[in-house]
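Hey team,

Filing this mostly as a record. A colleague (T.K.) asked me to run one chain through the structure pipeline before their review meeting, and I want the input and output archived in the tracker in case anyone asks later how it was produced. No errors, nothing strange. Just documentation.

Input sequence:
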Amino acid sequence: MLERLTDAHCHLSGRAPDSLPPRGVEACAACACFAGEWGELDGISRASVKKVYGLHPDAGISALDDIGFAEKQIFSVLLPELERRLASADAVGEIGLDARITERVPLEMQKRVFAAQLEIARARGLPALIHCVGEWGALREILRGFFSDDSGAGFLIHAASCSAEVAASLEKLGARFSFGVRELSSRRGAECAARVGSDRIMVETDGDCSAASLENAAAALAAVRSASAVEIADAAFENFRSFYSK
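Output structure:
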């Protein structure tokens, strides 16, 4: 069994908050990215669990919703509530852009909500956990407005599967990247994982945090980077500790 395992991005998924981190995992970042999940994190106070609040680009919006009204609710109700909860947070997320949902949630609206949360994160001095599917160009342009180098709280691209070229440009802005087995099984995910620096990598489950899942991710990342799983776990531990060090 690997030691010093960390999960850079997981979800409670209905499990009891006091079950985190599970046996064999040193620390994890538990993400509540829909308003109905935020209350689940409130009572956690263990240093080994990093609390991440945010509003996912999907935001729980259905095809039947009035999109104009939904956006007003986000800005007048949900984002102010999010800000109130961040006093005990370790990061803001997961936030970002998703090309798969643009028929329900227009891309321009996603951009506005994303930028608003980046502004909140910057004002609070918190790092951001970022979700992106199919909108890397738009994401990069928005990030350039908030991050110009490797200073400040920074941001983590979770479930990273962008091209090596995009990864290089994001790395210049201070990006970190976390990978699970799913991403490392794809060509782009493997290219991204092979390209970024060892001081940028973390592993994640993007679900139910478990030592077994993290060991599998570390082994897959090790194969891509021609390293040992121990080296990957150790690097991910140090990078996790640095990133979540507010």
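Quick notes for T.K.: DSSP finds nine helices and eight strands in the chain. The beta strands are 6-11, 27-32, 49-53, 91-98, 128-133, 155-157, 175-179, 201-203.
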